[in-house]
Write a structure and sequence with these properties.
Strand content: 25-35%
Number of strands: 24
Largest sheet: 11 strands, mixed
Shape: globular
CATH architecture: Sandwich
Number of domains: 1
Order of helices and strands: EEEEEEEEEEEEEEEEHEEEEEEHEE
CATH topology: Jelly Rolls
Distance between the termini: 26 Å
Radius of gyration: 18 Å
Helix content: under 10%
CATH class: Mainly Beta
Length: 374
């Protein structure tokens, strides 16, 4: 989504790249329908916990929600919860600017705290804390998950009262119950699956959990990948009162002078308007078999891809399940001057940006989530 703020807390290769999505204003969405395609990824060093800090900026408001869109095509995941990490989200308006993390995590696993492998049986983590996290997980559904860089976060960054609870078994099986005011015009919370991408071993051209021995881990260069895709199945309330969208939020490093946050919206409810995702940068483009329209707010560091609905340009899809080639979207940006040739992925989040639930509790759920990178 378009926010007038920079990345959450994301660090360049050397720093911890864990950030939470910031939010922008929300507006009712117009026509919507389903479709699928795009992929995302992020990176960060193996830190025992995610850094959840953002600084809110100005916010955009919008009219009451319009009509609801229709859903789309379908498409599976599994890890282990550890000690819930803590962060320091900042409450405020929907649009925010993120500041780089101050600590520099090591690329080697911590000696205590979260465990890298789960005990036998099914374990569920529940948190209602504004900055509550579940994990870290060793999650087979994400290629570079190593037991220290995968989390599920409650992330009530702009709602310190946090009328929201996350319940997670793993990144492919979690849900959130949220309650935000009717007609609210700003992103209040961003519950998400966080996958850091700072464990790339350039000498082995692979992730550290795929090679033996130690390596000089860094954020993952876009140019080093041949695949970055995400398969998912989620449930977003599609009604006239809910203002929210399911998306990916990718944070880039080594990308000076270009957007360092790239969002990919695929299931948009009452947010299909320029107040939510900014000005159109280019005519719709077909990438990996799906039609996308790129957007950006003036002078912002955020680039937003919106999956078009059945009505084409100006409509937004409501695709609750599918597979998206995030790498194809990033490479298009590089080829068309919207990302640096040297850009690297620091963090990839699968996230809901929630503005309103009509003043009552609503449930959002993920039943399958995978990030495949090579």
């Amino acid at each position: 989504m378009t926010r007038l703020f920079g990345p959450r807390t994301i660090l360049p290769a050397a720093l911890v790249a864990v950030a939470l999505t910031a939010a922008a204003g929300c507006q009712p969405q117009g026509g919507i329908s389903a479709s699928a395609s795009s992929s995302a990824s992020l990176s960060a060093t193996h830190s025992p916990r995610p850094h959840n800090s953002r600084t809110p900026g100005p916010h955009r408001t919008h009219p009451a929600p319009a009509t609801t869109p229709t859903s789309a095509t379908p498409v599976p995941g599994d890890p282990t919860p550890g000690d819930p990490p803590s962060g320091t989200p900042t409450a405020g308006d929907p649009t925010a600017t993120s500041t780089p993390p101050t600590s520099t995590p090591s690329s080697t696993p911590p000696s205590g705290g979260a465990t890298s492998s789960p005990p036998a049986g099914t374990h569920t983590c529940t948190t209602s804390k504004a900055n509550g996290n579940c994990g870290p997980y060793t999650y087979a559904g994400n290629t570079n998950s190593n037991g220290y860089n995968t989390y599920v976060s409650n992330n009530c960054w702009a709602d310190p009262s946090c009328k929201q609870t996350v319940t997670a078994t793993d990144p492919g099986n979690w849900s959130v119950s949220a309650s935000e005011p009717a007609g609210n015009g700003a992103v209040m919370t961003a519950p998400e699956v966080q996958q850091q991408f700072n464990n790339w071993c350039s000498s082995a051209r692979n992730f550290d959990n795929k090679v033996s021995g130690n390596c000089n881990a860094s954020d993952t260069p876009i140019s080093a990948l041949t695949q970055l895709s995400s398969s998912y199945t989620e449930s977003t309330p599609h009604n006239s009162q809910t203002i929210a969208q399911w998306s990916w939020d990718m944070w880039l490093s080594n990308d000076s002078g270009y957007p360092d946050e790239v969002m990919v919206w695929v299931d948009t409810n009452n947010r299909c308007n320029s107040g939510s995702f900014g000005t159109k940068l280019h005519d719709p483009v077909t990438i990996a078999g799906q039609q996308w329209t790129p957007h950006r707010y003036l002078n912002s560091s955020e680039f937003i891809w919106v999956l078009n609905g059945s009505g084409g340009d100006g409509t937004c899809a409501q695709q609750a399940s599918g597979t998206v080639s995030l790498l194809a979207l990033l490479k298009w940006m590089q080829s068309n001057g919207y990302a640096a040739p040297s850009a690297a992925i620091a963090l990839v989040d699968g996230v809901w940006e929630i503005c309103s639930t009509g003043g009552q509790a609503e449930n959002f759920a993920v039943s399958r989530y995978q990030l495949t990178a090579s």
